[in-house]
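Before going further, learn to read the protein records used in this course. Taken together, the tokens spell out the fold as the letters spell out the chain. A record is reproduced here so that you can trace the correspondence yourselves:

***
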Amino acid sequence: MTAQKFLPKEPKQKIASDALVLWSVTRPMQTSRLTSHQGVRAAYVVLTFALAAGIQPAVAEDTPARVEKAVATLNKLTDSSGHGMRLEEIRNADCIAIVPGFKKGAAVVGVGYGRGFISCRNGDTWSAPGAITLDSGSLGVQLGGEKIDLVILSIDKERRSKLLSDRFTIGSDASAAWGNGKSAHADPNAKILFFGYTKGAFAGFGLDGATLKPDESGNKALYGKPITNSEIVGGGTAAPAAAQPLVSKLTSLLHAESATK
């Protein structure tokens, strides 16, 4: 009797599970019944997860290569062309994030995703880099498949703890502006400055809603153990050999600025 009493529970759980799977499979087919706005949002969610899932597997293997690309990005955006960052802006920054090869979204649904590193000032030195991810989603038509090398400067030291938290959202946690490109404009209230580089004409993209998060798998690949970005940039963590080129580049930029004064 006892066994028979509990037998009905298993079919109910299975039915619930099967219903969830069926809902997941069939719901995209019903998008024609949604409004166009709801359809675009559904596609945005799917593309965001697809982008993230597609980039996850090779984290450990490509971390050293990403460090090299981050250094190359700093070289591009601090050259003598005058189209990138001024050394003075770097000197005044509290933290700097570099995201090489940020993948800008496809047409109709603007989704972007990239991985990079963040370093913060500890007196006259830059910290060891922590790994980060940056994702952006802005509904609207954008050029598809474009890769952008990004550098992000955080000006306000009081926002550092939030910047290094589990989620930092542009627009709600701090105002931001483009520092170069066609979208550049002087915003005295901006606490975050974005700089970008592409092979063609750089027009930027919508910043509100862009989100910085810690890249836990990237940190584990770089430091060989689980470690938070707050622990890394606090000054008590030595930069591993793979990260030394990036720290050296940041240090050279700091010294170069000092030499011009």
Observations:
- The longest strand covers residues 109-122.
- The longest helix spans residues 36-55.
